[in-house]
Write a structure and sequence with these properties.
The protein is mainly alpha-helical and 257 residues long. It has 13 helices and no strands. The longest helix has 25 residues, at 105-129. The termini are far apart.
């Protein structure tokens, strides 16, 4: 109980407000609706704390959000895609662990932002040239899985890279969101031991995470609700819109940080 009071007293009102918004945004992103929104969560929370504390506080909440939708995710995921991307993602996480201290937030934000923005341009151009189903590229899945594992480990920014591949697969919204849900459940559980070894996790930060647990289902179920209410065409237009917003935010952070 003392840890909870300390966690509450150690943070400002602004921290709790921004953290609450972050959790709802990442929950919506985890549902698959508005993928890309999740990249805004860590900067929001880190604006009122250190980047290391934000990483540590977010991880248990990310896992909790994963567990809220896990049954749905397991039922509807595309396991062919998961078999393709999970092993490269594990390798990417290993690289993230090895280079954790060497990668600055500025370089990471700028590189992911530019990469995502260029993909979106390519995606829009190709959709105007060829309206047929996009050809699947296994090598792209492995590459994006590895990049996603790396960026997920060092900054909880795994969404944009793997989404680049998933958008090319032309799956239904529920398969899309469920496949990403299983993917990030595995990734987030895989971070626990390395994060503890890097001294990113402690009881005070865990207590802070627990304070936000009641908010965990809100964003996920809101995202599920919105996904059911719109067509597949508009679903992916919205996904691309939020990826555009995210890429601009990341590039701005990289240039101005």
């Amino acid at each position: 109980m003392t840890s909870f009071f300390q966690a509450f007293n150690d943070h400002s009102t602004a921290f709790f407000v921004f953290a609450a918004i972050s959790i709802i945004l990442v929950g919506i992103s985890k549902s698959g609706f508005g993928a890309g929104l999740g990249v805004l969560s860590l900067p929001l929370m880190a604006s009122q704390s250190s980047i290391n504390e934000a990483l540590a506080v977010m991880l248990p909440l990310l896992i909790a959000i994963d567990l809220v939708g896990l049954r749905r995710f397991l039922k509807n995921a595309d396991w062919r895609i998961l078999k393709l991307v999970l092993l490269p993602a594990a390798f990417g996480m290993l690289l993230g662990y090895l280079f954790f201290s060497a990668i600055t937030p500025k370089i990471l934000s700028l590189s992911i932002g530019i990469f995502t923005f260029l993909f979106l341009i390519q995606s829009v151009v190709m959709s105007r040239i060829d309206l047929k189903e996009a050809k699947s590229f296994p090598w792209l899945g492995r590459l994006m899985g590895g990049v996603s594992g790396f960026t997920s480990f060092v900054a909880h920014l795994g969404g944009p890279p793997i989404t680049i591949y998933m958008l090319r697969e032309k799956v239904s919204p529920i398969v899309y969101s469920s496949t990403l849900g299983v993917f990030f459940t595995v990734m987030n559980f895989g971070k626990l031991v390395p994060y503890a070894y890097l001294d990113l996790l402690n009881f005070n930060q865990l207590s802070t995470s627990i304070l936000f647990l009641p908010l965990v289902p809100s964003g996920v179920y809101l995202g599920f609700y919105l996904a059911k209410k719109i067509s597949a065409k508009w679903y992916f237009i919205i996904v691309q819109f939020f990826l555009l917003v995210s890429s601009i935010k990341l590039i701005t952070d990289g240039l101005l940080a």
